[in-house]
Write a structure and sequence with these properties.
200 residues; Maf protein; 6-stranded mixed beta sheet; 6 helices
C-alpha cells in the first residue's frame, strides 16, 4: 500500500503559484483579498505594455507577451473608465490619458459636459499555457464635479450608481464588494476553484 500511495502522489501535478503581471501596488493588495486563498506572485513585464483602443485586444496582447517572457501560468488586470460624453474614452487608454491629464485635466475637459455618465470595466485575462480565458465586469456610475478621496487615481472621480462616495473614498472591503474588479475577480476565483488548481 505504501508503494501504491507514493505512485499516486508522484502522479499528482503540483503547480507553482500563478504570476500576476502588474506594476500597480494597489492592485496587488486588492487581489490578495479578492482571490484568497489562491496564491500568486507579482511580476513586471520587461517590455513595453501593449496599447490600443480595444480593451479585450489589449488584454490578450499583454497576456501573450507576458507568457512568452515568463513561461508560467499568469493573469493580468486591465481596468478603465469610459465616459459617455467622450464617446467611451478614455476606456482602454485610461492609464495613459490619466497620466497625461491628471485630475485637473480630467475635470477641466468635463466642466462643460452636462452628461457625466460613465462606466468602469475590468477585464481579467488568464493564461495557463494552453488557453486564454477572459473574465470581465462593468460598473455604471457618474464622474464627480470634484475629487473624493485620494487624488492620485481616477477612482476619486468615479461615483458608482446608487452610492454617495467615490471608489477611492470607500473602505477597501466595501469597494471590493461593488467594484468592477471585485465582480470580475469573483468569476475568476470561481473558475480557478472549478479547475482545482493546486498551488504551493
Amino acid at each position: 500500500m505504501g508503494i501504491a500511495f507514493l505512485r499516486r502522489v508522484c502522479d499528482v501535478k503540483v503547480l507553482k503559484p500563478m504570476r500576476f503581471v502588474t506594476s500597480n501596488p494597489q492592485k496587488i493588495v486588492e487581489y490578495e483579498q479578492l482571490l484568497a486563498p489562491q496564491q500568486f506572485i507579482p511580476v513586471r513585464l520587461n517590455v513595453r505594455e501593449p496599447q490600443g483602443d480595444n480593451q479585450r485586444e489589449v488584454v490578450r496582447d499583454k497576456l501573450l507577451l507576458a507568457y512568452i517572457e515568463k513561461r508560467a501560468r499568469l493573469f493580468v488586470d486591465h481596468t478603465g473608465v469610459s465616459i459617455k460624453a467622450w464617446n467611451g474614452l478614455p476606456g482602454s487608454m485610461t492609464k495613459e490619458i490619466w497620466g497625461q491629464l491628471g485630475i485637473a485635466g480630467f475635470l477641466r475637459l468635463l466642466q462643460c459636459d452636462i452628461n457625466r455618465q460613465a462606466k468602469v470595466r475590468t477585464i481579467i485575462g488568464y493564461c495557463n499555457g494552453r488557453r486564454i480565458y477572459i473574465f470581465e465586469a462593468d460598473l455604471q456610475g457618474v464622474i464627480a464635479a470634484e475629487p473624493d478621496g485620494p487624488t492620485d487615481t481616477w477612482e476619486s472621480l468615479f461615483i458608482p450608481e446608487g452610492c454617495a462616495r467615490s471608489l477611492a473614498a470607500m473602505p477597501l472591503e466595501e469597494k471590493l464588494q461593488i467594484s468592477a474588479r471585485g465582480q470580475a475577480a469573483k468569476k475568476f476565483k470561481e473558475f480557478l476553484s472549478q479547475q482545482a488548481v493546486t498551488t504551493w
